[in-house]
Amino acid sequence: MALNQAEIAQHPAHLELPDNVFVSRLDELGSWCRKNSLWPMPFATACCGIELMATGASRHDLARFGAEVFRFSPRQCDLMIVAGRVVMKMLPVLQRIWQQMLEPKWCISMGACASTGGVFDTYSVVQGIDRFVPVDMYIPGCPPRPEQLIQGIIDLQDKIQREGTVGGDEFAIAARQRPKRALIEHPFAVSPNVAVSPPRLLSS
Amino acid sequence: MTESSPAQPGSTQLATLSAVASQFPNATTSEFRGNVRVVMPRAQLREAAEWLRDERGFDQLIDITCVDYLHYREANERFGLVYLLARTETAERITLRVMLDEPDLTVDSLVPLWEGANWLEREVWDMFGITFAGHPDLRRILLPEEFTAHPLRKDYPLQGRGERHNFPVLTRGGG
Predict the structure, then answer these.
(1) Which residue of chain A comes nearest to B141, CA vs CA?
(2) Does domain B11-138+145-156 correspond to CATH entry 3.40.50.720?
(3) Residue B9 pLDDT
(4) Which ipTM score applies to this complex?
(5) How distant is the Cα of B166 from the closest Cα of chain A, in angstroms?
(6) Out of 2.40.50.140, 3.40.50.12280, 3.30.1330.30, 3.30.559.10, which CATH number does the structure's domain A24-180 have?
(7) Is A89 touching B (CB cutoff 8 A)?
(8) Which value, in Å, is the radius of gyration of the alpha carbons in chain B?
(9) Which of A191, B94, B124, B143 lies at a CB distance of 3.0 to 4.6 Å from B161, suitable for a disulfide?
């Protein structure tokens, strides 16, 4: 049953708000705060790192999007930007840095090498960091221009606003736990009859 | 410049060649476009390097590297270990080569002669699996310690044997 204006005003649950107050959900408020103060952790290993530096510098000015505070301690960051190829020897370091970052945290895979290995299809280069750490946003390019990185950060902000929750429940949903499609369609080829060393993770 | 054109060996290079040939009759000497090359028997490598350094003035070790001649038609031995030496007084250079074949891939280390040979020999060990007898610290230098192969050998696949996929997968909830 629809109420008319007079009945709404008389309703016991009705609350008169001043003009400068509006109502939102707590999740949206939290996400709004988080998305506008991303603190990037620069994991820059190659030429993408140069573009990452240019993005943070004055000309492209990442501060316009609230993400200019690059910190070199993972404990102070919530956005890992992996810029460049990651080799076997570096991956345990990357995983440890990822583990040291505090929740909620996000990961941007910047450029062709971080996302797929790029042209470096060799024995020592990891073919996409998303095989071993969760990735929220991929940025194409070799290397991507700063505009493209900024677009990636804007898209990540939209994603945080859209699905973010104060308790971080969005990270636990099934779609984020599922293996990447590329992994299902192209599983790892490990040669038979070859002893590979046991998987390693730097002990914490 | 008093030196001859690159296509013609200069007198110093010819002098070096003949001195090496008379000092080490078992060595094979050759010259190509001004480059002096010596293939030395394995047992005489250390002795020859020391002689070149002390008697002929080749005081700088430029590089140590290796070539895998697997599938190479004209090769009799599998590995060619290459030592590049230079004489800093005259900028003269010489290439010293030792051929090695499986299963015995051991040569004398040159660390007692040049400290700089340390990391170069470690890299050759890492990439080709050549053992240097007398090396003070023969560990892998570039690859992770638990790596089991020597990836610059020609029989090692370019994309590896799965080592690059051999890591734990971190997910959102679990780790």
Answers:
(1) A89
(2) no
(3) 64
(4) 0.79
(5) 5
(6) 3.40.50.12280
(7) yes
(8) 20
(9) A191
Burial of B143 (0-12, 13-18, 19+ CB in 10 A): buried
Q: Do A134 and B172 touch (CB under 8 A)?
A: yes
Average pLDDT over residues A60-86: 93
Mean pLDDT of A152-171: 90
pLDDT single digits (tens) B10-41: 778 888 888 888 898 888 998 888 888 999 99
Q: Do B169 and A131 touch (CB under 8 A)?
A: yes
**Distance to chain B for A77, nearest Cα, Å:** 16
Structural domain boundaries in chain A: 24-180
Q: Which sequence spans correspond to the domains of chain B? A: 11-138+145-156
Å between B74 CA and nearest CA of chain A? 28
Q: Tokens representing B130?
A: 């050549």
- Rounded distance, CA A143 to CA A145, Å? 6
Chain B: residue whose CA lies nearest to A193: B161
Name the DSSP class of B104: B
Is there a contact between B154 and B161 (Cβ–Cβ < 8 Å)?
no
Nearest to A177 among B146, B148, B172 (CB): B172
Low-confidence winner among A80-94, B7-21, B80-94, B122-136 (lowest mean pLDDT): B7-21
Given a contact cutoff of 8 angstroms between Cβ atoms, the answer to whether B59 and B53 are in contact is yes
Chain B residue whose CA is closest to A107: B172
Rg of the Cα trace of chain A? 22
Kindly tell me if the per-residue pLDDT of A200 is higher than 70: no
